[in-house]
Amino acid sequence: MRIVIPGGSGQIGTILARAFHEESHDVAVLSRRSQRRPWRVVEWDGATLGAWQREIDGAAVVINLAGRSVNCRYNAANRREILESRVASTRAVGEAISRASQPPPVWLQASTATIYAHRYDEANDERSGVLGGAEPDAPAAWRFSIDVARAWEAACDDAVTPATRKVLLRSAVTMSADEGGAFDALLGLVRHGLGGTAGTGRQFVSWIHCEDFVSAVRWLIDRHDVDGAVNLASPYPLPNAEFMRVLRAAYGAPIGLPASNWMLEIGAAFMRTETELILKSRRVVPARLLEHGFSFTFPSWSAAAADLCDQWKTTRRGDRSAG
After folding, report:
1. What distance in Å separates the CA atoms of residue 298 and residue 47, rounded to the nearest whole number?
2. Which residues are bridge partners to 31 per DSSP?
3. In the 8-state DSSP scheme, what is residue 232?
4. Structural domain spans, the chain
């Protein structure tokens, strides 16, 4: 089948494109820059219709991941680009689908688990979860991410695509052994003795192993009875202190120095990112996946961390041997 992935040149898009390409599907990634890949890469501007929309006409599925990375400082220019890149690209995809003579049966639209409130008590599922933005104990800067997530989902909801089922992927942090991803960054801290508790350590970390992420996407393509918001996250989020302890154990690191809030603020400023990515409590569970019978290969962080550490070590040994 033909699978179109707008914004598929980043880590998550590459994980999906690689998996579907290996299954001999016709994969087309829409990207703002040309790339040499085993699959087709089609240029687009992420905002206006063009020749790229021919890829969508007759496709089996569109998986829209387009949007500027949030791993940056939230200054005015970056905020504007983060918001506009998501809303404009989603509207363009919706318009292309609405104009297609053979619209795709399903549109999987990226969203984020960050849309839920910063909380330590109850877990957020798709029905009873509390959307963020009004938490009294959350920094005002964190509300920007909530506003972006709401606008992103609204752009998809507003698209008129009566022949196309729409699914909003409220994804937790996807963990893979690939270089440059979230797991690689966390393991880098552990390897250098810095992978201890962040802040109070009470904040929940919601995550999903990349294999389960790909499996869930495949499952959602086939499940014609599932639409709307779906949480893509492991059933077992962990407090940061426990999450990092398990990761240290999986790698074999005896210690991990903790980092207080003020240390994290300095580090985030130096790395040109935001502490929200570390300190916000994201306690998200995949109720709809579980209710409809989806089975996780890596439901627990201990098994996932062990597998990812093994993959990471194997890949790095291979790189050294090749060098």
Report:
1. 37
2. 43
3. E
4. 2-313
**SS3 call for 176:** coil
Residue 165, strand partner residues = 106
Whole-angstrom distance, CA of residue 305 vs CA of residue 67: 28
Tokens of 150: 């709401």
pLDDT digits (tens, 9 = 90+) for 84-100: 999 999 999 999 999 99
CA neighbor of 308 nearest in space, from 295, 322, 297, 323: 297
User: What pTM was estimated for this model as a whole?
Assistant: 0.94
Rounded distance, CA 24 to CA 14, Å? Answer: 15
**99: part of which helix (H) or strand (E)?**
helix 76-99
Please write the tens of the pLDDT for every residue from 212-241. 999 999 999 999 999 999 999 999 999 999
Please state, in angstroms and as integers, the Cα–Cα distance from residue 96 to each residue in 82, 110, 249, 304, following that order: 22, 17, 48, 38
Could you tell me which residues come within 8 angstroms of residue 262 by beta carbon, excluding any fewer than 6 positions away? none
CA distances from 23 to 3, 39, 190, 234 (A): 12, 12, 35, 25
Count of helices and strands (H, E) across the chain: 11, 11
CA-to-CA dists, residue 116 to 64, 126, 140, 161, 206, angstroms: 21, 10, 15, 26, 11
Fold held by 2-313: Rossmann fold (3.40.50)
Residue where the block lists tokens 């996807």: 174
Q: Are strands 26-31 and 40-43 parallel, antiparallel or unpaired?
A: parallel
